[in-house]
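Figure 6 in text form: structure in, sequence out.
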């Protein structure tokens, strides 16, 4: 019986050592998991800050600011389109006048008619 008790004591001692070693390994892996979680959380916070999600949420929660920003953006786009269309049309008319001055047989007459129609329209409609 004594031999059996000694064997059991030896087994318990070995299990205790094994459990202590396992808990040390578990503590290290838990610490590593915490460190990795912290790193990933930091990366997520940086990514969210770069995407300016907070400002977007604040904008959605403020209807007046949202309407004001959209109104100003729409007016700016409208003015930009008007100026751009004016520049393109003026450039096109300038080149059509140049082609009309070359007196090309068929194209010159057609372009001259277009220029005359546009000039007449511009002269007759005074704003």
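Output sequence:
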């Amino acid at each position: 019986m004594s031999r059996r008790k000694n064997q059991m004591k030896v087994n318990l001692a070995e299990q205790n050592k094994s459990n202590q070693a396992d808990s040390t390994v578990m503590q290290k892996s838990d610490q590593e998991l915490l460190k990795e979680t912290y790193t990933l959380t930091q990366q997520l916070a940086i990514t969210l800050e770069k995407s300016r999600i907070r400002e977007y949420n604040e904008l959605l929660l403020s209807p007046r600011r949202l309407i004001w920003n959209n109104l100003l953006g729409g007016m700016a786009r409208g003015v930009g389109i008007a100026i751009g269309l004016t520049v393109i049309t003026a450039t096109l008319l300038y080149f059509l006048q140049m082609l009309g001055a070359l007196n090309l047989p068929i194209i010159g007459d057609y372009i001259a008619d277009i220029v005359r129609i546009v000039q007449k329209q511009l002269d007759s409609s005074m704003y």
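Caption detail: The chain has a mean pLDDT of 81.
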